[in-house]
Automatic annotation (TrEMBL):
The keyword Transferase applies. This is Homocitrate synthase. It comes from Clostridium tarantellae. The gene is nifV. Pfam families: HCS_D2, HMGL-like. GO terms for biological process: carboxylic acid metabolic process. Belongs to the alpha-IPM synthase/homocitrate synthase family. Keywords: Acyltransferase, Transferase.
Length: 382
């Protein structure tokens, strides 16, 4: 199910954390049945690994994780843990096959959050990793606040994790302060120095989560952490649908995922999270393939490739030519062909004037019934 770089054959794996980091969005709570549905949808879509929650929370959280594991999905199921052995025991009780072990690696976190030392961080990480590996779990070691950590310490930390038996390192841009150029450089350096698999986990505080995640892949990372719609702490995470389509159309990767499910999954997560799916949302927003302005609508009618980067059906959407203030005659004439009405030059000119007047008054594009009413009114005036 990996994504493949068609140039060099390198495989990239997608780790979705909608059910963990996504649910950590302030005010968001998924019901247990919603968690099961989202997990099933993401597995059907083709996501490699699902990070589904925090077993140490107990209660409904643990219950839903156990239920997801019992579904025997195609995706690997991962649980999030602190670098605490009792957390791993809770994860084992849920029967997940993978664990994320998270601990802070930046000096600001070590000194002001943990109030401890770098040595303590490495010691506790090693102890927890060794316990997890002893119990035959796949282990991702998460470096919280990696982007603000001293890179030499990160190298030491990764080498220690590698020696303890960890399977990969999660590079966390926890407060979203990186840019694609520095991310690419940092990841390239870490991989050159450690020869260890790296996962990108990027936040969107400055609107660069998706570009930073992809830049990490260009720098050599093998895994990308994402959430549906970019849901997540504060401004969110790299968006699943944006990352995958960006890899395909901007960077030429081959996707082994069912992209036709994107809109359906995005709508479901939007409703379950109580967070609006904006019309202007990249990839899956309803405006992605909606054309109104005269030049754009005319170009899209002549050949959709003039103004569309890919076919709307690829992500579960449809093309729409809407009529409003910015429409031109070509769009209006084309629209009325749907009603089997051929507008002549005189009628199209009159209609366009009326359409623009009504659109300005209503502050929106017009509904089909409103267009037909304008047409009928003009016929009566003749």
């Amino acid at each position: 199910m990996a994504i493949i770089d068609k140039v060099n054959g390198k495989k990239i794996y997608i780790v979705d954390t909608t059910l963990r980091d996504g649910e950590q969005t302030a005010g968001v709570v998924f019901a247990n049945n919603e968690k099961l549905t989202i997990a099933q949808m993401l597995s059907d879509l083709g996501v490699n690994q699902l990070e589904v929650g925090i077993p140490a929370m107990g209660g409904d959280e643990k219950k839903s994780i156990k239920a997801i594991c019992k579904k025997k999905l195609k995706s690997s199921i991962m649980a999030w843990n602190r670098a605490v052995i009792s957390d791993i025991e809770h994860s084992m009780d849920c029967e997940v096959d993978a664990v994320a072990i998270s601990i802070s690696v930046s000096d600001i976190h070590i000194q002001h959050k943990l109030k401890t030392s770098r040595e303590w961080v490495i010691e506790n990480m090693i102890k927890t990793v060794e316990f997890a590996k002893k119990n035959k779990l796949y282990v991702s070691v998460n470096g919280e606040d990696s982007s603000r950590a001293d890179i030499e310490f990160l190298i030491t930390f990764i080498e220690a994790a590698k020696k303890a038996g960890a399977d990969r390192f999660r590079y966390c841009d926890t407060v979203g302060i990186m840019n694609p150029f520095n991310i690419k450089s940092n990841i390239n350096t870490l991989i050159e120095k450690t020869k260890f698999p790296i996962e990108m986990h990027t936040h969107n505080d400055f609107g660069m989560a998706t570009s930073n995640a992809i830049a990490g892949v260009i720098g050599g990372a093998d895994y990308i952490g994402v959430t549906v719609n970019g849901l997540g702490e504060r401004a969110g995470n790299a968006a699943l649908e944006e990352v995958l389509m960006g890899l395909k159309y901007v960077h030429g990767y081959e996707l082994n995922v069912d992209t036709k499910m994107f809109r359906e999954v995005s709508e479901y997560v939007s409703k379950a999270s109580g967070r609006e799916l904006p019309a202007w949302k990249a990839i899956v927003g309803s405006n992605m393939f909606k054309h109104e302005s005269g030049i754009h609508a005319d170009g899209a009618i002549k050949n959709p490739e003039n103004y569309e980067a890919f076919n709307p059906k690829e992500v579960g959407l449809e093309r729409q030519i809407v009529i409003g203030k910015h429409s031109g005659k070509a769009a209006l004439v084309n629209k009325f062909k749907e009603y089997s009405i051929e507008l002549n030059e005189n009628m199209s000119n009159k209609m366009l004037q009326k359409v623009r007047e009504l659109s300005v008054m209503l502050k929106r594009s017009l509904f089909d019934k409103e267009l037909v009413q304008i047409y009928n009114d003009l016929l009566e005036e003749q």
